[in-house]
C-alpha cells in the first residue's frame, strides 16, 4: 500500500460512514414513525374504551371486558400486522358502539314502528284490559249502573295509555348537539286516537251487554 492509496481509502471510509449514518437516521425515523403509530392507536383505543363504558352506563348494560385475551400459541407477528389488526378491531368496536347507541336512541317499545302504530297498540291494550274489568263489574253491578260502568273506566284507560305512551316512547340514550346539550325528543302521544278507541270500546261494551238493545 502506497501513500497514493490513502485518499481512496479515506474516501471509501467516508462513504461507509455516510451510509451507516444514513441507515441509522432511517432506522431512527422508522422507529419514530412506529412509535407515533402505536401511540395514536393506543390513544384511539383508550378513547373508544371510555366511550363504550359511558354508553354502557347510559344503556344500563354491563361493561364488557375490553382486555384482549392473550393466546400463547399465537406466533408473534410484525408490528405492521399488529397495527392493522388493532385498527380493524377498533373499527369493529366503534361500529358496534354506534349501532348500540342508535338503538338506544329509539323508543324502547316497538322501536322501528311508526308512532301511530305504537300508540295504537298501547291504547288498545289498555282498553282491552278496561273492557275485561267492565264486563266483570257489569256481572255484579245493578242494572242502573251500566251507563257509569260503560263510560268511566274507558276514561281511566285512555289516561293510563297516555301515560304509558310517554314512558315507552322515550329513548334511553339522549341525543346531544355539537355543544353537548341534550336535544329534546318529541313524543307523539296521540290522545285523539285514544279517545276514538275509547268510544269504540264503549260501543263494544254496550253491544256485548245488551245496553243498545
From TrEMBL:
Keyword Transmembrane listed: yes
TM stretches of this protein: 120-141, 147-168, 193-212
Record keywords, A-Z: Membrane, Transmembrane, Transmembrane helix
UniProt name for this protein: Uncharacterized protein
Organism: Actinorhabdospora filicis
Amino acid at each position: 500500500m502506497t501513500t497514493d492509496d490513502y485518499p481512496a481509502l479515506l474516501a471509501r471510509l467516508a462513504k461507509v460512514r455516510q451510509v451507516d449514518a444514513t441507515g441509522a437516521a432511517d432506522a431512527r425515523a422508522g422507529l419514530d414513525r412506529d412509535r407515533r403509530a402505536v401511540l395514536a392507536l393506543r390513544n384511539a383505543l383508550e378513547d373508544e374504551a371510555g366511550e363504550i363504558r359511558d354508553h354502557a352506563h347510559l344503556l344500563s348494560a354491563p361493561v364488557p371486558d375490553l382486555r384482549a385475551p392473550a393466546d400463547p400459541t399465537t406466533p408473534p407477528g410484525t408490528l405492521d400486522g399488529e397495527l392493522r389488526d388493532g385498527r380493524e378491531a377498533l373499527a369493529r368496536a366503534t361500529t358496534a358502539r354506534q349501532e348500540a347507541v342508535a338503538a338506544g336512541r329509539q323508543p324502547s317499545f316497538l322501536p322501528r314502528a311508526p308512532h301511530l302504530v305504537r300508540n295504537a297498540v298501547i291504547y288498545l291494550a289498555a282498553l282491552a284490559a278496561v273492557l275485561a274489568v267492565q264486563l266483570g263489574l257489569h256481572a255484579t253491578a245493578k242494572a242502573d249502573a251500566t251507563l257509569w260502568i260503560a263510560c268511566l273506566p274507558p276514561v281511566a284507560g285512555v289516561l293510563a295509555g297516555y301515560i304509558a305512551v310517554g314512558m315507552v316512547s322515550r329513548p334511553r340514550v339522549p341525543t346531544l348537539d355539537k355543544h353537548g346539550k341534550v336535544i329534546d325528543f318529541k313524543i307523539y302521544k296521540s290522545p285523539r286516537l285514544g279517545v276514538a278507541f275509547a268510544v269504540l270500546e264503549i260501543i263494544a261494551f254496550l253491544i256485548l251487554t245488551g245496553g243498545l238493545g
